[in-house]
Write a structure and sequence with these properties.
The protein has a five-stranded antiparallel sheet with strand order 2-1-5-4-3, sandwiched between helices. It has 196 residues and is α+β, with helices and mostly antiparallel strands.
Length: 196
């Protein structure tokens, strides 16, 4: 690797390796120059097969796989959320947690991945580069879909047909805690003397 500052054991490289999010260093054509160990499962290839390849090709973007020219060369690429975020950063802007969907080919089937894309520009050794961070929020988006809830007691059914309180369901699935209060309408019903 030509940049010693990112080498394993180097100060910056060690910091980036410790971050538990997939981080890539890319150029304006989304060619991958470096990635951290958290990105390795997402990329799924040996390092030699990743470096200087375009992101859509390595991530198995549906459109990059369908095209003989690869990532960035199809009619759909002009709307690519990753490519557009990288281009914004090449032009000096930061993109922070922009929600996007990406269709990828995985084991001969098309899967949709919901991502938060963050990009930030930086220059190193006279090259304009972009720090690209990808957060997979697919599980969260599934949860955002349809949640089976009892019309009477308001408990939620999980995947194993176990009914649990709304508070517990969100604690387990989203690590959220609730604080409790009484809304104005319920306060009128429950405490009519106090409300007036």
């Amino acid at each position: 690797m030509k940049w010693k500052i990112l080498e394993k054991g180097g100060f910056i490289g060690s910091i980036l390796e410790a971050i538990p999010l997939p981080i890539l260093v890319v150029d304006e054509d989304v060619r991958i120059f470096w990635y951290n160990q958290s990105a390795a499962p997402l990329l799924g290839l040996e390092p030699d097969l990743v470096f200087l390849k375009r992101g859509g090709e390595v991530l198995h973007c549906l459109h990059a796989v369908e095209s003989t020219e690869g990532c960035g060369r199809t009619e759909f690429c002009k709307d690519c959320p990753i490519r557009n975020s990288v281009q914004q950063s090449i032009n000096g802007q930061r993109v922070v947690r922009k929600q996007n969907k990406m269709r990828m080919v995985e084991k001969d089937r098309v899967v949709e991945m919901n991502l938060l894309v963050t990009t930030a520009p930086f220059a190193y050794q006279d090259e304009s580069l972009v720090l690209l961070i990808l957060e997979d929020i697919s599980e969260l988006m599934e949860l955002k879909g349809i949640v089976p809830i009892c019309a009477y007691c308001k408990r939620i059914r999980d995947d194993e047909a176990f009914w649990q309180s709304v508070e517990n369901y969100f604690k387990v699935h989203l690590n959220l805690n609730f604080s409790h209060g009484v809304c104005p309408d319920c306060a009128k019903k429950l405490y009519p003397d106090l409300h007036e």
